[in-house]
Amino acid sequence: MPQGGLLSIFSHPDDETFGIGGTMALCARRGIPVTMVCATRGEVGEITPGTGATPDTLGQFREDELREACALLGVTDVRFLGFRDSGMKGTPENEDPRALVNAHPDAVIHLLVRLIRELKPDVVATWDESGGYGHPDHIAMHFRATAAFDAAGDASKFPTSGAPFTPKRLFYNAIPMAEFGRMMQEMRERGIDIPEIAEDDDLMTLPRLEPNCIVDVSDVVDTKEKAMLTHRTQVSDMGPFMSMPEDIRRRFFGREYFYLARPTLPAGEMLDDLFANM
Q: Which of 169, 172, 180, 189 is nearest to 240 (CA)?
């Protein structure tokens, strides 16, 4: 297994493509090793009609969709941690003892530390504290992946899980709310119906970080969109984002936004690549 490269740590199938699919595709093009780690198989997500998936089979469908998406992006190393999708806060699924949010933190951190020490990535990327839109699994993985990044280089932590190793950088995928707002405003001005998510007050009040790394993925935006559409149980050609005008959609998905959390980037400095200046 090649060492170095990018370790992407997310919660459900489709998180990877929407969040950093373009970045992963660019890395793959450059010959940079990429490993995609998914904590769950998305067993309790909504099911797009006509896909043939059922609540009992959704997990397998979504695993297959993730593997197909990653193949399009050029990512061949895909790992699942084996926890169950927790669903949204307040739902019965959130109380399931198998759910990611109910796993002991150290059980999750241990698995991630083992992977970091095995793969020795240069860069780790995961959710920011908002989890994008506040999903409990996204938030849990933010904290577990951050803890694993910090623990992996400490010989006193999880000593049976390989030699200590600290990656060079930890990035959080950070939704640019200002850019999101500009896109919504442009759609309003054109008289276009906007996704209901844009009117969600809870979404707007989640803890946010201002991106300090913006990656231009316009060269691979077609590949990214194809990968997004492999998540057939979750999206369709008529989905709210995919039905946006092409110019707005391509502009929005043509850039990906991150916050460098480890090490600290000097105030005002902006990166354009997860591996810039390394």
A: 180
Q: Give the largest Cα separation in the chain, rounded.
A: 59
Percent of the chain predicted with pLDDT > 70: 92
Asked if residues 132 and 88 have their Cβ atoms less than 8 Å apart, the reply is no
Instruction: Give the closest residue to 208 by CA, choosing from 125, 131, 123.
Output: 131
Give the Å distances, CA to CA, from 28 to 4, 35, 157, 212, 273: 13, 10, 32, 23, 14
Enclosing H/E stretch for 259: strand 255-262
Instruction: In whole angstroms, give the CA distance from residue 262 to residue 188.
Output: 38
User: Do residues 112 and 9 make contact, with C-beta atoms less than 8 angstroms apart?
Assistant: yes
Q: Is the peptide bond before 263 cis (omega within 30 degrees of 0)?
A: yes
Angle at which helices 246-253 and 221-229 pack, to 10 degrees? 100
- Identify how many contiguous H helices and E strands the chain contains and give both numbers: 9, 7
Structure tokens at 12: 């459900």
Tell me the average pLDDT of the chain.
91
pTM above 0.70, yes or no: yes
Hey, which residues does 173 pair with through a beta bridge? 127, 258
Q: 163 — phi, psi (to 5°)?
A: -70, 145
